[in-house]
Amino acid sequence: MRGQPLLAPGKVRRVTSSELWTRATADRYDAEETEMSSAAVLGPTLDFLAGLAGDGAALEFAIGTGRVGVPLRERGVPVAGIELSEHMAAVLRRKIGEDALPVAIGDMAATAVPGEFTLVYLVYNTISNLLGQDEQVECFRNAARHLAPGGRFVIELGVPPLRFLPPGQVAVPFDVSERHLGFDTVDVLEQILVSHHFTRDGDDGRYRRGSSRHRYAWPAELDLMARIAGLELERRVADWDGAPFTQDSAKHISVWRKPN
């Protein structure tokens, strides 16, 4: 499902454990994520992020094809991005020019971009693409380096589905629909979750199989990473509409603040 894209001659880049998107995967990404790009999903997301950005600029880690960054820029928030996959960034570039939304190709745990930001954000579980705890800590530190005093770092991340695992079971389904079957297998010792996808490809009954690895982390672990980076927890909610975060929440939106 994923592989490493070719680099331009002489180009040097630190690559983390994150798996890289192929050109084919990047080209079909938007078509397969129509629900996540719908007004019902994006509206509250953009409201939340624009409110935190205020009159300042925003930096999106793992900006991908611009599902969030492009419409946030269209709302008048200056946006820059960091993206590991050149193929994903190429899809974004078909939508908006470099002058309007600059994107640095590199590792979100280490890459620096010019400027100071009132908001750094990382959505749709993407911090879990960093497969080691040290790399996730460095991601927090990189966010803190880019933030102005008083700025915020926002993460959207699912809660690990461990309570759905009875003894002896290692797989949890997360989607059973006409065109897609998805389930996660969990290694609780290494905190690694592998998402398996069987996606119907056309109308001839064939399914395309793919998988991706993720390191899951509990909210309390992320709070400790934030403290290491000099950030303070300001708010945690269950969704972009601001519903209270409870023990039954499937995901969380967490906001950490850089002290003045």
Automatic annotation (TrEMBL):
The keyword Glycoprotein does not apply. Keywords: Methyltransferase, Transferase. GO terms for biological process: methylation. The keyword Lipid metabolism does not apply. Gene3D superfamilies: Vaccinia Virus protein VP39 (3.40.50.150). Residues 59-151 form the Methyltransferase domain. This is Class I SAM-dependent methyltransferase. InterPro entries: Methyltransf_25, SAM-dependent_MTases_sf. SUPFAM superfamilies: S-adenosyl-L-methionine-dependent methyltransferases. One of its GO terms (molecular function) is methyltransferase activity. It comes from the Bacteria.
